[in-house]
Write a structure and sequence with these properties.
Order of helices and strands of chain B: EEEEEEEEEEE
Distance between the termini of chain A: 35 Å
Distance between the termini of chain B: 39 Å
Low-confidence stretches of chain B: none
Mean pLDDT of chain A: 97
Number of strands of chain B: 11
Shape of chain A: globular
Number of helices of chain B: 0
Shape of chain B: globular
Helix content of chain B: under 10%
Number of helices of chain A: 0
Radius of gyration of chain A: 13 Å
Strand content of chain A: over 45%
Radius of gyration of chain B: 14 Å
Structural class of chain A: mainly beta
Low-confidence stretches of chain A: none
Strand content of chain B: over 45%
Largest sheet of chain B: 7 strands, mixed
Oligomer: heterodimer
Largest sheet of chain A: 7 strands, mixed
Structural class of chain B: mainly beta
Number of strands of chain A: 11
């Protein structure tokens, strides 16, 4: 099983500042990585797939980068609605065994 | 606009079988472009993939749950279902259904999610 590790567990950032979230895979997942945003009481929402492609309707302030085992989600200028938990997920296996990171909570500083 | 809606009992007794259905609206479950599946989230914890299904009936399951999980599809009703047998308190979670889109053959990510349904395992 591919283990996904996210860091930090909690990130405190002020509105308007940049946030950088990290995700590491225990083995290469190529670019088959997605990022999701989850707000309290809501379902996760797809932000990024293919490591760097924004999903439909996702603002340009969200960007993803990386390949292989190291990935980054950057939010360039934090808005109030961006404070949430973010998960990375790999989808590189076939037959599939999808695995998620444990999440990074982005909180207001 | 595609929507997914989970339904089923909110309370299940230990050792019994959890059964949930996901109804798809605004699109066809028989599309050859997508898989469909289930993910769960225990209270205060992260996300766990349960399994996925193609409209033809091909299924894939998380190895850690495989012995207890069955996912099926009913194309006539535009629904797919989850059964999880021999449940314990550890199966208490919010259960989400989702559509899986692809960025290439064999590479599927979850692009549309249902709102989730809470299932509690307790006597």
């Amino acid at each position: 099983e591919i283990v996904m590790t996210q860091s930090p567990a909690t990130l405190s950032v002020s509105p308007g500042e940049r946030a950088t979230l990290s995700c590491r895979a225990s083995q290469s997942v190529s670019s088959n990585l997605a990022w999701y945003q989850q707000k309290p009481g809501q379902a996760p929402r797809l932000l990024i797939y293919g490591a760097s492609t924004r999903a439909t309707g996702i603002p340009a302030r969200f960007s993803g980068s990386g390949s292989g085992t190291e990935f980054t989600l950057t939010i360039s200028s934090l808005q109030s609605e961006d404070f949430a938990v973010y998960y990375c997920q790999q989808y590189n296996n076939w037959p599939p065994v999808y695995t998620f990171g444990q999440g990074t909570k982005l909180e207001i500083k | 606009q595609l929507q997914l809606q989970e339904s089923g009992p909110g309370l299940v007794k230990p050792s019994e079988t959890l059964s949930l259905t996901c109804t798809v609206s605004g699109g066809s479950i028989s599309s050859s472009s997508y898989y469909w599946g289930w993910i769960r989230q225990p209270p205060g914890k992260g996300l766990e993939w349960i399994g996925s299904i193609y409209y033809s009936g091909s299924t894939y399951y998380n190895p850690s749950l495989k012995s207890r999980v069955t996912i099926s599809v009913d194309t006539s009703k535009n629904q797919f279902s989850l059964k999880l047998s021999s449940v314990t308190a550890a199966d208490t979670a919010v259960y989400y259904c989702a559509r899986y889109d692809s960025s290439g053959p064999y590479y599927y990510y979850m692009d549309v999610w249902g709102k989730g349904t809470t299932v509690t395992v307790s006597s």
